[in-house]
């Protein structure tokens, strides 16, 4: 090859190589910028989703706060509070009914409780012995002798014992039960100023108990009563979700308000047990994560102050067995994993202690 041709080729190469290098660098930079733009768009979408869900959850809690305050101030609940408190105080105590109630605790309730909490060694007698004579009498008639099965004790309108309490219950139960069902609350309670649960829609074992010295004096329900009693004003007081034994250790939150007479005298408290299912439905987007733009692995979740999850994890819903196996492989506490498996839920059973949850809880 002639020197002239070689020089031409070299000259071309010297011209082309920098051009190729420049094109390559520009291509890499464009790719990186494009990738960063896509990543930022995804991040913005997730932040937008999170903020929208936060607003929805806040609206939900504002709504139920308004509901408890409004109902507590209604003429019906003010009158019901007076009537139930008076009837509770005068309820006759029949000692012969105690045996059937004790059997109910030891058999029906404990059997159901152990099915849902296989590793729990709860003693039914420790609950029963802390019941007052009035609590034993009312629970005997409205729970133990109630012909409806567990979970349906609210269907009983009148025990037929001709007591003043039964007459009051017959007068108010239908309206309060309709309110509870229409707005999806798990239960609705009325207490007297001293902390006795003088009325409950659902009639679990918290019914008729004392929230100051009874078996559930350290529960979320007791904290809800105390918050409303202490503040002595008609406003909503929220108690965080935690395992609630009368509901078989399912996670339960409460919101309460004082019931006041026209002159400001405390007549009692009104308490709602919150429906964790509704919160779960919101956070899981009706289990339509992909359709709602979260792809194959995105999810939203809500934790309480103890970092416990208040909705079911997407990964648990889609593959319970695989999720449990993965938790075990990650070395998650065995008792926690066993509880998730036994309860078949991550609601109130899975703690998420991550930088994200710590940052969110710290504000």
UniProtKB/TrEMBL annotation:
Keywords: Membrane, Transmembrane, Transmembrane helix
Spans through the membrane: 7-31
The name this protein goes by in its record: Methyl-accepting chemotaxis protein
Domain of life per record: Bacteria
């Amino acid at each position: 090859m002639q020197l002239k041709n070689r020089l031409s080729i070299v000259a071309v190469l010297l011209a082309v190589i920098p051009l190729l290098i420049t094109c390559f660098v520009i291509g890499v930079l464009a790719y990186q910028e494009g990738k960063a733009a896509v990543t930022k768009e995804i991040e913005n979408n997730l932040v937008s989703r999170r903020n929208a869900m936060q607003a929805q959850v806040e609206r939900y809690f504002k709504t139920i706060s308004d509901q408890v305050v409004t109902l507590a101030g209604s003429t019906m609940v003010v009158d019901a509070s007076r009537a139930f408190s008076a009837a509770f105080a005068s309820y006759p105590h029949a000692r012969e009914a105690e045996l059937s109630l004790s059997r109910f605790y030891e058999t029906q309730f404990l059997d159901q409780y152990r099915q849902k909490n296989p590793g729990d060694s709860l003693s039914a007698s420790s609950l029963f012995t802390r019941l007052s004579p009035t609590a034993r009498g009312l629970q005997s008639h409205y729970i133990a002798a109630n012909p409806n099965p567990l979970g349906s004790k609210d269907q009983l309108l009148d025990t037929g014992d001709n007591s003043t309490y039964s007459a009051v219950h017959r007068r108010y139960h239908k309206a309060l039960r309709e309110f509870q069902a229409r707005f999806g609350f798990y239960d609705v309670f009325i207490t007297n100023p001293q902390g006795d649960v003088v009325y409950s829609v659902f009639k679990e074992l918290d019914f008729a108990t004392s929230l100051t010295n009874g078996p559930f004096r350290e529960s979320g329900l007791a904290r809800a009563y105390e918050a409303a009693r202490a503040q002595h004003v008609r406003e909503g007081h929220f108690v965080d979700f935690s395992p609630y034994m009368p509901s078989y250790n399912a996670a339960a939150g409460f919101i309460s308000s004082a019931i006041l007479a026209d002159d400001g005298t405390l007549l009692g408290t009104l308490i709602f047990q919150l429906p964790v299912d509704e919160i779960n439905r919101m956070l899981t987007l009706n289990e339509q994560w992909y359709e709602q733009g979260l792809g194959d692995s995105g999810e939203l979740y809500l934790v309480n102050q103890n970092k416990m999850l208040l909705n079911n994890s997407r990964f648990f819903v889609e593959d319970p067995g695989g999720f449990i196996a993965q938790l075990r492989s990650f070395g998650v506490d065995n008792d926690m994993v066993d509880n998730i498996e036994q309860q078949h839920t991550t609601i109130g059973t899975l703690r998420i202690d991550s930088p994200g949850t710590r940052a969110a809880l710290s504000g």
